[in-house]
Amino acid sequence: MEKELLVYIDGKYYPKSQAKVSVYDHGLLYGDGVFEGIRAYNGVVFRLKEHIDRLYRSAHTIMLQIPVPKEEMIKIVLETLRKNNLKDSYIRLVVTRGVGDLGLNPKKCPKPTIIVITDTIALHKSEAKEKGVTAMLSWVKRDPVDATTHEIKSLNYLNSILAKIEANISGVDEAICLDKNGFICEGVAENIFIVKKGKIFTPPSYTGALPGITAEAVMQLARKLGYEVIEKNITPYELFNAEEVFFTGTAAEIVPVREINKRTINNGVPGLITKKLMDAFAKMVQDPKEGIPIY
Ligand code: PXG
After folding, report:
1. CATH number of 128-284
2. Per-residue pLDDT tens for 142-160?
3. Atom 5 of ligand 1, nearest CA residue
4. Is residue 180 annotated as a catalytic residue, yes or no?
5. Closest residue (by CA) to atom 14 of ligand 1?
6. Fold match between 6-121 and 128-284?
7. Which CATH class is domain 6-121?
């Protein structure tokens, strides 16, 4: 039998089938917690420091005191990967408010729960990357910046899940959320970019989008390749008429969008700039300088 993956919970390692948290954990009861989705490529954890920084910013915003310093958290992630002999991996780092009673007051939770899941990830190129995906604008507005904003990578993902359900029942691959003013915000777990007259545009974080680590890397790559990248409000009209549209995210990497609400983008094929960025990104993630080595 294949050996079970080990999961880190609060200083101990448990086989996947026995990796459990209390039903009194406020991460479960109230979605009170923060997380990161991270990837390792060929023995290097891509932009791990940036992910850890973002985790601590999310925690700081919700006044969750992570009980270990950042350097220790990096060590925990690397150690979990080593325990599982992983070189290419999907890493899920979760810090919940911890165990409390059946009231939402976080004061009742003395100790946050730290969970590190490192699992395998399929690396082969999917059809989505070659042909592009279909998407729709969802009726579900992104949580506003003066509420449970997605700038915080919290355990509250119902906003994204509602949008994803709409995509599922409509038979398209992905959903795109608008902000409360009607501007384009982001995909359910991806940032969004459009190309217009050779320039690249993406919504600013004040639409309530997560400041994506892949998006940041892609903006750096695009500028290096000589493209202008501009953060500005994007209307649905601009999206429908864009020359190219693509998503970025840790899980998605870069994915071209070929159709939105039945409007074809770029004749339904991935655009040139999108493809250039996909190639550059595929090289970037293999660069040891872009992350922290596991071994
Ligand atoms: N927006 C939102 C709302 C996200 O959740 C992104 C943008 C892209 O950010 P990064 O930093 O990944 O480029 C995300 C990322 C999962 C999973 O398992 C979710 C994300 C990333 C990885 C895994 O659901 N969300």
Report:
1. 3.20.10.10
2. 999 999 999 999 999 999 9
3. 189
4. no
5. 189
6. no
7. alpha beta
